[in-house]
Design a protein that fits this description.
about 20% strand; about 0% helix; 3-stranded antiparallel β-sheet; Rubrerythrin, domain 2; single chain
C-alpha cells in the first residue's frame, strides 16, 4: 500500500464535498486516518447522498 494512504482526499463529483482521510468523519463514526478503501461501499456523501462510486481522488 502507498505511504500516502491516510493522507489523501476524495471529492464528490456531484456536489464537490471532500473527504480528507487525515480528518476522517468522526460524526459518522469514521476515525481520522481512515483510508478511503475502508469506507463501506454503501456509504453516502453527507452533503448530497450520492454513492462512494461518484468520488474521485482529489489533489491536496
Amino acid at each position: 500500500m502507498s505511504e500516502d494512504v491516510g493522507k489523501r482526499a476524495w471529492m464528490c463529483l456531484v456536489c464537490g464535498w471532500v473527504y480528507y482521510e487525515s480528518l476522517g468523519l468522526p460524526e459518522e463514526g469514521i476515525a481520522p486516518g481512515t483510508p478511503w478503501e475502508e469506507i463501506p461501499d454503501d456509504w453516502e456523501c453527507p452533503d448530497c447522498g450520492t454513492t462512494k462510486a461518484d468520488f474521485v481522488m482529489a489533489p491536496l
